[in-house]
């Protein structure tokens, strides 16, 4: 019989709440911490979180907490489910109320602009060493709306410590939520973060009225530039053909649940970025990640034409249609650059 645990989910948005449900289904005592007292009252009294997961009923073994100290008391594992922008602030608050080491499972998909740190690196940077047991990432094609309806979902967990990843695999795995492990933490985090850029771009092309051919082109050429950067950063190229690479690209570029796709769609239809973000009401990670990936491309001297085009649209007021035209009229090239180099050296 598996050990049932007290587990704290930090962040009561869509993804934190959906993951709390999976853990509750597995019999764990789940504490769901959020910074909004009214929302916590709703979770405890009505067993709903209507803003983030409308129509979903939460079981009794999910208890809402508004105080981090109480939420983290006597807990060994915490799931960190806040937007990338809020991570440092929340970790700082956690460090102030913790004395014992904690395993942090992060589920956010982003890169920090300017420092260019992946989220596991941000956690190591911000959390004092004596308070950090292990850092694990959970990522993959998984919209909260579907997970909360117990629709079949597959994800991957990764950590520098394989045993920690396997423990998290055991906490989450069940008949509708299948969890794999992958030792390549760089590839897992880069794939999960950068697919949001391509999802924004896919939303834009849909909003402009382009068809499925354009979407397929974006997904495959998007994957090529993500893998080009990721491998330079030390990731295994194989990871990009897995759940956290192509898998997450497919779901985010093709699903109406995706906030990144929806934001891109509105941009393609002519709305201004500020207006789109204001009306979304939930995090659109791809915007900040585009800034970070653009900086990473410069740092590692990697060509990322789709990321650059999106950067121009988001931050330089470029016209989306002009950027698509510019992408299509670049100098002709090989599809597989490495393969072309190998073949020409054999001649
Ligand atoms: N939704 C999904 O399907 C998936 C999301 N993810 C990733 O999970 C991460 C979280 O996303 P998601 O849950 O969807 O986002 P949401 O926008 O749905 O929720 C974000 C939550 O974080 C809270 N929050 C924001 N800032 C702070 C802060 N400074 N301190 C404390 N809490 C804060 C929000 O509170 P408030 O309501 O007060 O704003 C809200 O409860 C993102 O990185 C996302 O990419 C990954 C896989 C799937
Ligand atoms: O990461 C996700 C699905 O795997 C969620 O994507 P969005 O943030 O675009 O909704």
UniProtKB/TrEMBL annotation:
<feature type="binding site">
    <location>
        <begin position="259"/>
        <end position="260"/>
    </location>
    <ligand>
        <name>substrate</name>
    </ligand>
</feature>
<dbReference type="InterPro" id="IPR011128">
    <property type="entry name" value="G3P_DH_NAD-dep_N"/>
</dbReference>
<keyword id="KW-0444">Lipid biosynthesis</keyword>
<keyword id="KW-0443">Lipid metabolism</keyword>
<feature type="domain" description="Glycerol-3-phosphate dehydrogenase NAD-dependent C-terminal">
    <location>
        <begin position="184"/>
        <end position="324"/>
    </location>
</feature>
<dbReference type="InterPro" id="IPR006168">
    <property type="entry name" value="G3P_DH_NAD-dep"/>
</dbReference>
<feature type="binding site">
    <location>
        <position position="259"/>
    </location>
    <ligand>
        <name>NADPH</name>
    </ligand>
</feature>
<feature type="binding site">
    <location>
        <position position="144"/>
    </location>
    <ligand>
        <name>NAD(+)</name>
    </ligand>
</feature>
<feature type="binding site">
    <location>
        <position position="109"/>
    </location>
    <ligand>
        <name>sn-glycerol 3-phosphate</name>
    </ligand>
</feature>
<feature type="binding site">
    <location>
        <position position="259"/>
    </location>
    <ligand>
        <name>NAD(+)</name>
    </ligand>
</feature>
<keyword id="KW-0521">NADP</keyword>
<keyword id="KW-0520">NAD</keyword>
<dbReference type="Pfam" id="PF07479">
    <property type="entry name" value="NAD_Gly3P_dh_C"/>
</dbReference>
<keyword id="KW-0547">Nucleotide-binding</keyword>
<feature type="binding site">
    <location>
        <position position="258"/>
    </location>
    <ligand>
        <name>sn-glycerol 3-phosphate</name>
    </ligand>
</feature>
<dbReference type="GO" id="GO:0046168">
    <property type="term" value="P:glycerol-3-phosphate catabolic process"/>
</dbReference>
<dbReference type="GO" id="GO:0051287">
    <property type="term" value="F:NAD binding"/>
</dbReference>
<dbReference type="GO" id="GO:0141153">
    <property type="term" value="F:glycerol-3-phosphate dehydrogenase (NADP+) activity"/>
</dbReference>
<feature type="binding site">
    <location>
        <position position="144"/>
    </location>
    <ligand>
        <name>NADPH</name>
    </ligand>
</feature>
<comment type="pathway">
    <text>Membrane lipid metabolism; glycerophospholipid metabolism.</text>
</comment>
<feature type="binding site">
    <location>
        <begin position="11"/>
        <end position="16"/>
    </location>
    <ligand>
        <name>NAD(+)</name>
    </ligand>
</feature>
<dbReference type="GO" id="GO:0006650">
    <property type="term" value="P:glycerophospholipid metabolic process"/>
</dbReference>
<protein>
    <recommendedName>
        <fullName>Glycerol-3-phosphate dehydrogenase [NAD(P)+]</fullName>
        <ecNumber>1.1.1.94</ecNumber>
    </recommendedName>
</protein>
<keyword id="KW-0594">Phospholipid biosynthesis</keyword>
<dbReference type="GO" id="GO:0005829">
    <property type="term" value="C:cytosol"/>
</dbReference>
<keyword id="KW-1208">Phospholipid metabolism</keyword>
<comment type="function">
    <text>Catalyzes the reduction of the glycolytic intermediate dihydroxyacetone phosphate (DHAP) to sn-glycerol 3-phosphate (G3P), the key precursor for phospholipid synthesis.</text>
</comment>
<dbReference type="InterPro" id="IPR013328">
    <property type="entry name" value="6PGD_dom2"/>
</dbReference>
<feature type="binding site">
    <location>
        <position position="248"/>
    </location>
    <ligand>
        <name>sn-glycerol 3-phosphate</name>
    </ligand>
</feature>
<comment type="similarity">
    <text>Belongs to the NAD-dependent glycerol-3-phosphate dehydrogenase family.</text>
</comment>
<feature type="active site" description="Proton acceptor">
    <location>
        <position position="195"/>
    </location>
</feature>
<dbReference type="InterPro" id="IPR036291">
    <property type="entry name" value="NAD(P)-bd_dom_sf"/>
</dbReference>
<feature type="binding site">
    <location>
        <position position="109"/>
    </location>
    <ligand>
        <name>substrate</name>
    </ligand>
</feature>
<dbReference type="GO" id="GO:0046167">
    <property type="term" value="P:glycerol-3-phosphate biosynthetic process"/>
</dbReference>
<feature type="binding site">
    <location>
        <position position="35"/>
    </location>
    <ligand>
        <name>NADPH</name>
    </ligand>
</feature>
<feature type="binding site">
    <location>
        <position position="140"/>
    </location>
    <ligand>
        <name>sn-glycerol 3-phosphate</name>
    </ligand>
</feature>
<feature type="binding site">
    <location>
        <position position="259"/>
    </location>
    <ligand>
        <name>sn-glycerol 3-phosphate</name>
    </ligand>
</feature>
<dbReference type="GO" id="GO:0141152">
    <property type="term" value="F:glycerol-3-phosphate dehydrogenase (NAD+) activity"/>
</dbReference>
<feature type="binding site">
    <location>
        <position position="195"/>
    </location>
    <ligand>
        <name>sn-glycerol 3-phosphate</name>
    </ligand>
</feature>
<feature type="domain" description="Glycerol-3-phosphate dehydrogenase NAD-dependent N-terminal">
    <location>
        <begin position="6"/>
        <end position="164"/>
    </location>
</feature>
<dbReference type="InterPro" id="IPR008927">
    <property type="entry name" value="6-PGluconate_DH-like_C_sf"/>
</dbReference>
<feature type="binding site">
    <location>
        <position position="283"/>
    </location>
    <ligand>
        <name>NADPH</name>
    </ligand>
</feature>
């Amino acid at each position: 019989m598996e050990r049932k645990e007290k587990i704290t989910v930090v962040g009561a948005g869509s993804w934190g709440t959906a993951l709390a449900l999976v853990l509750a289904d597995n019999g764990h005592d789940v504490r769901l911490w959020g910074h909004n007292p009214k929302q916590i009252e709703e979770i405890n009294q009505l067993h709903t979180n209507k803003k983030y997961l409308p129509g979903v009923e939460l079981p009794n073994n999910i208890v809402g907490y508004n105080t981090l100290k109480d939420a983290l008391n006597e807990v060994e594992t915490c799931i960190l489910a806040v937007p990338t922008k809020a991570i440092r602030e929340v970790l700082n608050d956690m460090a102030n109320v913790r004395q014992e080491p904690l395993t942090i499972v992060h589920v956010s998909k982003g890169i920090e602009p300017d420092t260019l740190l992946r989220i596991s690196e941000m956690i190591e940077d911000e959390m004092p060493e004596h308070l950090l047991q292990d850092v694990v990432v959970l990522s993959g094609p998984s919209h909260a709306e579907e997970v909360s309806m117990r629709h079949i979902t597959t994800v991957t967990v990764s950590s520098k410590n394989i045993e920690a990843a396997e423990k998290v695999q055991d906490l989450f795995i069940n008949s509708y939520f299948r969890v794999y492990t992958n030792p390549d933490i760089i590839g897992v985090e880069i794939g999960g973060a950068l697919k949001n850029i391509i999802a924004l771009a896919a939303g834009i092309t849909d909003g402009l009225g382009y068809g499925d051919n354009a979407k397929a082109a974006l997904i495959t050429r998007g994957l090529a530039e993500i893998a080009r950067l990721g491998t330079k950063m030390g990731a295994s190229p194989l990871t990009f053909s897995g759940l956290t690479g192509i898998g997450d690209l497919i779901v985010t570029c093709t699903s109406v649940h995706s906030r990144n796709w929806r934001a891109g769609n509105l941009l393609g239809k002519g709305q201004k970025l500020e207006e789109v973000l204001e009306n979304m009401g939930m995090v659109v990670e791809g915007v900040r990640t585009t800034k970070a990936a653009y900086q990473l491309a410069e740092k590692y001297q990697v060509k990322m034409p789709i990321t650059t085009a999106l950067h121009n649209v988001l931050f330089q007021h470029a016209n989306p249609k002009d950027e698509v035209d510019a992408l299509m009229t670049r100098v002709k090239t090989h599809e597989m650059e490495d393969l072309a180099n190998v073949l020409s050296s054999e001649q």
